[in-house]
Amino acid sequence: MKIELVKKVVEAKDTMSFFWKAQKPFKYLPGQFFYVTLSNLDVADSKGTTRHFSFSTSPTEGNVFSFTTRIRNESGFKQTLKNLEIGTFAEFSGPEGTFIIDENEAGNNFLIAGGIGITPFRSALKYQVDNNFKTKTVLLFSNSKFDEIPFKKELDLWSKNNNISVFHSLSQEQNKIKDADFSGRVSVAMIKKCADESFLSTAKFWICGPPLMVRAVTAMVEELPYQNTIYTESFTGY
């Protein structure tokens, strides 16, 4: 299916959202992903002209959808993407994936995101806000530096109500800790400070980010003295 680029937005340092309109309506769920194929690249890329991205918009946001990605100089695909003109067409395939928070399932949700791994959670949280779901949700969002945090204003606004609590951690910028809740990489101690025992004991954990981060955080959650269900999704190709 053809999709048309209608808007580009800088979300944080080296991070952009690309908004598209499809030729015909389609349905997707928060947490799913899709494939985008560009007709040609400005810079050669050994990985080719196709990439997969999670939806960063919610299905509640109308017929324009987006993905959000880090722009890397070493990626010919990303450099071409950055320079695309509004009105450019690309090929879309999808949606796919099962990293989907079911609002009908009982229990709390604890989301842990590393960097651009926030994208499926942004979609899910917007979906929760727009539908006024009563599910209690905690988000622990880890980034290296303050200026690399995408969607911060939006996330912090949602955390003021909607049964959502958002916590930020910075791993490489100690002088900015006043703008965050924690310093350093995600830890068991951090997780315990984000929610009380009654929440943690019933929470389903959703972990998304770079593969090393996902593996490390999964091991931490498994250390907790509860029988938590854990869902993971690793983002490669940064």
Describe the structure.
The chain is of the alpha/beta class and about 240 residues long. The chain has six helices and twelve strands. The strands form two sheets. Strands 4-3-6-1-2-5 form a six-stranded antiparallel β-sheet, covered by helices on one side. About 35% of the residues are buried. The model has no long low-confidence stretch (mean pLDDT about 95).
Return the CATH topology of the largest domain.
Answer: Rossmann fold
Give the tally of structural domains: 2
* CATH homologous superfamily label of the largest domain: Nucleotide-binding domain of ferredoxin-NADP reductase (FNR) module
Give the neighbour order of strands across the main sheet: 4-3-6-1-2-5
CATH class of the largest domain: Alpha Beta
Shape: globular
Spans of at least 5 consecutive residues with low confidence: none
Order of SSEs, N→C? EEEEEHEEHEHEEHHEHE
Structural class category: alpha/beta
Do you know the CATH architecture of the largest domain? 3-Layer(aba) Sandwich
* Average predicted confidence as pLDDT: 93
Number of strands: 12
Topology summary:
Elements: E1 2-12, E2 15-22, E3 33-37, E4 50-54, E5 64-70, H1 76-82, E6 89-96, E7 109-114, H2 119-131, E8 137-143, H3 152-158, E9 164-170, E10 182-183, H4 188-194, H5 197-202, E11 204-209, H6 211-223, E12 230-234
Parallel strand pairs: 7-8, 7-11, 8-9, 9-10, 11-12
Antiparallel strand pairs: 1-2, 1-6, 2-5, 3-4, 3-6
